[in-house]
Amino acid sequence: MVSFKMLGDQTPKGETMKSKEMYETAQEYLIENMGNQVSAGDVYYDNSTKTWNVKIISKTPHDILIVGEMHLDDEKTIVYVTPGEQVLKILRSKLKEERVLIDVPADALARIKETVPDVTVYG
Predict the structure, then answer these.
(1) In the 3-class helix/strand/coil scheme, how is 9-40 assigned residue by residue?
(2) Nearest by Cα to 70 from 41, 50, 93
(3) Which of 37, 52, 78, 109 would bridge 22 by S-S if both were Cys, CB 3.0 to 4.6 A apart?
(4) Taking the complete model, does pTM exceed 0.85, yes or no?
């Protein structure tokens, strides 16, 4: 589910409808220009810059990762978007950081420590 947030003291008129329009514009741009590996996420209005900002997200089997951001003006013109190469770099970096939790018998921990580099054992 997408959330819509407002930053700053004032909110523009028709904020909910405008937020949905910005989300749809961002989603359309992302599909056309970056494919189906990313999508639009949270939308918020930044009163200090007078732009609608949309998080660019990527869904993984374990999490939803924020990999960039898009800024649009009130006319739905894209003012800034994280470049595709940078989105991929961020995604790769975050996937390398991704950790998993496994359930193994206690007697197997010693073998896992010897076999898997950079493993941390809790418990």
Answers:
(1) CCCCCCHHHHHHHHHHHHHHHHHHHHCCCCEE
(2) 41
(3) 52
(4) no
Q: How far is 54 from 41, CA to CA, in rounded Å?
A: 6
Spatial contact of 27 and 39, defined as CB atoms under 8 Å apart = yes
Mean per-residue pLDDT, 83-110: 81
- Rounded to 10 deg, the angle between the 84-97 and 15-34 helix axes is 90
Locate the domains of the chain by residue range: 4-115
64/5: higher pLDDT: 64
Tens digit of each residue's pLDDT (9 = 90 or more) over 33-55: 998 889 999 999 999 999 999 99
Burial group, residue 93, by CB count within 10 angstroms (0-12, 13-18, 19+) = exposed
